[in-house]
Amino acid sequence: MSGMTDPATDAATRRFPDMWVDPEDDPRGQWADPVGELETHWSYLRTYRTTLVMKCDGLDAEQLARRSVPPSTLSLLGLVRHLAKVEHVWFRQVLQGHHELPKLYVAEGGPDADFDGAVADPAVVEEAWATWRREAGAADAWLATQSDDDMGSTVLHHGNPTTVRDVLEHLVEEYARHLGHADLLRECIDGRTGQ
Prior knowledge:
By secondary structure, this protein is mainly α. The chain has helices spanning about 5-10, 35-55, 60-65, 75-95, 115, 120-145, 165-190, and strands spanning about 155, 160-165. The chain has a single domain (about 5-190), classed as dinb family like domain (Four Helix Bundle (Hemerythrin (Met), subunit A), Up-down Bundle). A hairpin with a 2-residue loop joins strand 1 (about 155) and strand 2. It is globular, with a radius of gyration of 17 Å.
C-alpha cells in the first residue's frame, strides 16, 4: 500500500522499538517549516493523511474492516472511506461548488454508509484507497491554486457563510479526531502503538 516495512520484522531493528518508526525514517513532513497560513494548514493535512496510511499499513481486508466494539461500526476501512467522503464534500462540493457531483457512499444507504459498507472484501479495500487517493489528490490540486490571500474567502455551506480557513481547520480537526480512533483500532488488531 505504501511501501513501508513490515512491523513484525523491523521492530527489533529500530532504535526506538516502542515508536511506529524511528524519527529519521518518519515519512511525514511534520518537521517541515511551512511558510504562511495556507502552507501551514496544508502541511498538517498532508501529515495526517500520511499517518492514516501508516496506521493501515500491512493489514489485510479482514483486519481493516474489523469493527471496534459493538454496536459501533467504526473500523480502519470505514475511516478511509469516511475521510474520502469528507475530502470530497469539503473540497469539491463546498470550496469548488461542484454540487452536481454524486455524493460518496450514500447510494449504499443511510448516513453511515461509509462505515456500514466497510466490509472485509479486497475489492472494497482497493476501491476505498483509490477513492481516498483521488479525493486527496483533487484537494491538493485545488490547494495548489490558492494563496494566503484566499484563506479569508467566503463560501456557502448549507446557506451559511464559511471561509477557506475554516474549512481547512475543520479538515485538520477531522483527521486528528479520527486518527485517535485509528490508534486504538490498530492497537486492538495487532498491538502496534506509536506516534
